[in-house]
Amino acid sequence: MNDRSSAPAAISCKGVWQVFGHNPEQKLKAALERSGGDAGSAAANLRKDGLIPAVQDATFEVKEGELFVIMGLSGSGKSTLIRSISHLIQGTAGEIEIDGENILAASKKRLIELRRHKLGMVFQHFGLFPHMTVAENVAFPLKMQGKNKKQRRQRALEVIKLVGLDGREGAFPRELSGGQRQRVGIARSLAVNPDIWFLDEPFSALDPLIRRQLQDEFLNIQATLKKSIVFITHDITEALKLADRIAIMKDGEIVQIGTPAEIVLHPVNDYVAEFSKDVAKGKHARVSMVMDGENPVPGNMPDDPGLRTNMTIDTALAKCMELYEPVPVWDGEGKQAGFVHPSELAAALQVEAD
Amino acid sequence: MPQNSETKSLPWGLTPGAFAAWAAALLGLACILLTPVFPWLVKWPAALTLPMTDWIGSVVGWFLSVLKPAARLFSAGLGYPMLWANWLLTATPWPLVIGVVTAIGWYLGGLRMAALGLGGLSFVLASGYWIESMNTLALVAVSVPLALMAGLSIGILAYEFPRVKKPVQGLLDVMQTVPTFAYLTPLLFLFGFGPVVGLIASAIYAAPPMARNVLLGLERVEDDIKDAAVMSGGTRRQQLFLIEIPAAATQIMVGVNQCLMAALSMVIIAAVIGGFNDIGWEVLLTMRKAQFGQSFLAGLVIVVFAMVIDRMSGALAMERRRYDLRVIGLLMAVALLFTLLMGSSLPNPSDYAAFDPTAAVVDRALGDFTAEYGLALDQLKNTILFYVMLPLRIGLDNAVLPFTWGFMWTPAMSMIFLAVAATGGVALFLTGRRVAGAVLLLLAVTVETGVAELPWAFVIGGAGLVGWVSGGRKLALFAASMLALILVSGLWDRALLSLYLSGVSVLACTAVGGATGLLCAVSPAAWRVVRPICDMLQTIPLFVFLIPVLMFFQIGEFSAFLAICAYAVVPMIRYTRHGLINTPEEMLEAAVSSGATGWQIMREVRAPYAVPTILLGLNQTILYAFSMLVIAALIGTTGLGQSIYLALGKGDVGLGLGAGAAMAILALVADRLVQGFAEEKRRALGL
Ligand SMILES: Nc1ncnc2c1ncn2[C@@H]1O[C@H](COP(=O)(O)OP(=O)(O)OP(=O)(O)O)[C@@H](O)[C@H]1O
Ligand SMILES: [Mg+2]
Questions:
Q1: Residues 141-200 of A with CB under 8 A from B
Q2: What are the boundaries of each domain within chain B?
Q3: Staple partner for B103: which of A189, B231, B262, B331, CB 3.0–4.6 Å?
Q4: Which of chain A's residues have a Cβ under 8 Å away from the Cβ of B233?
């Protein structure tokens, strides 16, 4: 979970709207004029008119190599958002750039180009081609690239192995379990080695055990491949485990974007707080988030339990069970980064919305 | 459904249904009473009749004659593949043909299908109709690829361009309601006499089901699959041909199956044009010569053919196992070996007549049977004719004669009859059964005058009112104006006759089919018996229905009635059963836990829930009845069917198309009205 705020943006969205219904462009323009540019009331007006503002005024960036998670209740517009980023649907308003290229202005040919080489996508309902075997499914994007049969076969077997399906490459999708199908979808999206990877609830069809195992594999893959990823889930534990940053959506609106710790410790409203209600916060928040790094370090600190900035609060608390005075916090290189009062560590776990 | 604002203004707080029923009943009563004074209420004045069939004739005729050279060229071109297919099928030694069909059967469905192919074709061979059957098959073999290509292109077009989808669907609707015979006439004009016309007609008839299924299949491909194809970087064409069409294969195969069956059915019907020594012609010929044994046999050959084609192509639409391909090689080798060994001593297939004795036996048995029971059969026929069909057709006032009913109907009786009905109706109204009262009066009016002599104002007004109840103002306008079009075209009398015959048949089908469906819903054992019969009836080409009824009841309206019923009853049975069976489990449990008995559940829960489904069945039955009506014209009915058939004989394009259009209008109006009710019921049940 390193800091990437200085990295260039892989995806950048500015004021993206996706409105479903009759004549959405005109209606959106009119609604925005009426509300004086206020997205919330414009969306409310559109809803009253019988339209569906599935994504309202989404503005965010995904950095290169970042794993960006989108969370939200069912119907909050997560799938719609990535569908408009990948230009599967024509956005109603806003700007979308991929690697600095405005893709709304891209020609059909350029879009096909981008999809063949740069973008990969895993679908919520898998979207496997029923008339093709696992290997043919996985090799299909390569076929579109114009690779020959031998190259396709070789690369397909490679990714099939990566997702642990070796031996099943001759099976048809209907012969596979839900979890296996899911993996075929993942393998297919990886076949062309895309730079930008969209995953729409890729682990939802799996039982908890396999899910955890796949999440770990996924983190491994990401550690080596370093892709820019947009990952949808509605499982908070999954989000916290995987994400560099999390965006929380509600009724089409992005209500908060932040690191896992920020989401857990500083939710902007009850909706966000509700998500992390049952999460063991101490496992996700780190000492650096509660320590005091600005004020001068008090002269005498009798105890030093050896807290480090990247320690989870749970671990830190365990070390200061018996302590009632501020203690020092050390960074990775062994320099003193600040101090923290043990009672603040405990208080951090009782979070209310800011 | 009429808007609330409309219902509010109805007098005496009537529901729209009751209001419309009473308005129609009173309109009918008024028409009857006024007819003696204003005879034009029944008979539309000739002076106001527009010669529409002539107009259609000259406009279409002109148009066709422009197209004619191109069409002739086309038909000449099409003649070649037909000749080749014909030559291939008839010149190939029959053991090879049987071997190939058996092998195809094996490939499609393993041992069962192989056995079906082998058995079916052996039967055809033994019947002595091998050559005729191969001729028919050659027609199908050329027309089906045409129909498939056309259907596929239309389906894809409608799918790719949303703007043309609506018009295309409308066109498909119309094509399925316009009776098959109707477009034979213009086709004859365009392409000239000969088997090519039958071929083209069957391609035209068989394309719509293919187009429908292609469109449906493509639309039903999961969104994620379509998106995955896009995200893989496929061009639109790659998406369509590499992903979407293969993914829709199952539904498309259903289309192929329907297309094959439609083509076969039409090829056989087109035999009435003649000129090609095919199996349909054989049926027609023997039927005309009253050689029922032979005709029955030929009919059986057609049924066997239909079964083989249907079951084999049906297997395409199912999930298939892969069968050992070596068996195919083996089958072919055996067939080849057999042919070579027999060499020139291979018997000529036409010499087979294994069943000729059977045919003779059937003839004799039939003769004996009619000699023995002819009287009883006649009695049955006459009873139904005199006491049910005739009064419905020409009314009590004309049907009640001394030699049928034993007395003469007098105008005084009419008055008394109507007065009694009116009193009964008012009594029912006052005791709260308002719709029932109006229905009683409506029935009385209809029976008194007869459908064929109903005042036009009553028919059109009534249809408008029914349309209003079922679908609001727009449907009312549609129904009334479409019927008015028939009225002024001069085809009105014939249309009423057709309406009468299909009406009687639909009534009978509703009663018999509904009861059978109910029986099958309560008793699985009954369904086990009825189901194969239904399957069978739906596989048989329309034409073949005529054979058995002719055998027993000779030419005439009654035979036509029976043939229509036999064909049209199937959807009623199926939908009724289906509707009654598929009540949601929790509704049944709720009823059981409230202590309802089996019959109470049937009446209070299952039946109301099944109404929309049963209405759809009725809708299908009506459409089936109309399509059979035209075929039944071959064995003597009056009305539009007869006109279409006559037009075919005379080459009168205007009459053929006009009468066909009138028939299509009747079917479309009936379809929309019933659909409207079904839709409303579905909404009322929250489905
Ligand atoms: N093509 C469409 N036409 C009309 N409305 C749509 C369309 N696609 C999505 N919607 C609506 O947009 C809203 C957001 O849908 P979306 O599929 O993005 O939700 P989601 O957050 O992905 O939910 P889930 O977690 O269930 O997948 C929903 O109200 C949905 O009904
Ligand atoms: Mg979704």
A1: 141, 144-145, 174, 185, 188-189
A2: 92-127+320-344, 141-317, 493-687
A3: B331
A4: 112-117, 141, 144-145
- Distance CA(B113)–CA(A173), nearest Å, equals 27
The CATH superfamily of B141-317 is MetI-like (1.10.3720.10)
What does DSSP say about strands A327-330 and A52-63: parallel, antiparallel, or unpaired?
A: unpaired
Residue nearest ligand 1's atom 27 by CA: A74
Q: Say yes or no: CB of residue A88 within 6 Å of ligand 1.
A: no
Q: Which residues on A lie below 8 Å from B235 (Cβ)?
A: 112
Q: Do B231 and A88 touch (CB under 8 A)?
A: yes
A127 and B228: CB-CB below 8 Å?
yes
Write the pLDDT tens digit of every residue in B30-89: 888 887 777 777 777 777 778 878 888 888 888 888 888 888 888 888 888 888 998 988
Atom 24 of ligand 1: nearest residue by CA position: A74
Q: C-alpha angle A287/A291/A292, rounded to 5°?
A: 165
Residue-wise pLDDT tens digits, B513-562? 999 999 998 888 999 999 889 988 888 888 888 888 888 888 888 889 99
Query: Shortest CB distance from B225 goes to which of A112, A127, A145?
Result: A127
- At the top level of CATH, which class does the domain B493-687 belong to? mainly alpha
Q: CA torsion A37→A41→A47→A48, rounded to 10°?
A: -110
Give dist(CA B21, CA B26) in Å, integer. 9
Is the distance from the beta carbon of residue A74 to the nearest atom of ligand 1 less than 6 Å? yes
CA B256, B262, B264, B267 dihedral sign is negative
The enclosing H or E element of A256 equals strand A253-258
Residue type, B589: E
Q: Which amino acid is at A146?
A: G
Distances (CA, A) of A336 to A309, A322, B23: 10, 22, 96
Can B141-317 and B493-687 be said to share one CATH topology? yes
> Does the beta carbon of A78 sit less than 6 angstroms from any atom of ligand 1?
yes
What is the pairing mode between strands A228-233 and A196-200? parallel
Separation between Cα atoms, residue B92 and residue B82, nearest integer Å? 15
Helical H runs in chain A?
24-35, 39-48, 78-85, 108-117, 134-145, 149-162, 178-190, 208-225, 236-242, 260-265, 270-275, 281-284, 287-290, 313-319, 342-348
d(CA A198, CA A182): 14
Judging contacts by C-beta atoms under 8 Å, the chain B residues touching residue A88 are: 227, 230-231
Q: Kind and range of the H or E element at A337?
A: strand A336-340
Strands A119-122 and A67-72: unpaired
Structure token digits, residue A30: 């009119």
- Dist. CA B87–CA B97, nearest whole Å: 13
Retrieve residue B630's tokens: 């035209």
The domain segmentation of chain A, as residue ranges, is: 281-293+303-354
Burial class (CB in 10 A: 0-12, 13-18, 19+), A177: exposed
Nearest to A115 among B225, B231, B243 (CB): B231
Q: What is the pLDDT of residues B264-295, one digit of tens each?
A: 888 888 887 766 788 888 888 888 887 888 88
Q: Is A67 in the pocket of ligand 1 (CB under 6 A)?
A: no
Q: Does A226 touch chain B (CB under 8 A)?
A: no
Report how many Cβ contacts below 8 Å link chain A to chain B.
Answer: 66
What ipTM, to 2 d.p.?
0.83
Identify which of A16, A56, A79, A234 to mutate to test ligand 1's pocket (most ligand atoms within 8 A of the CB).
A79
Report field, pTM of the whole predicted structure over 0.90: no
B64 vs B53: CA distance, rounded Å: 15
Are B225 and A129 in contact, with CB atoms under 8 Å apart? yes
Between CA B567 and CA B573, with CA B571 as vertex, the angle to 5 degrees is 100
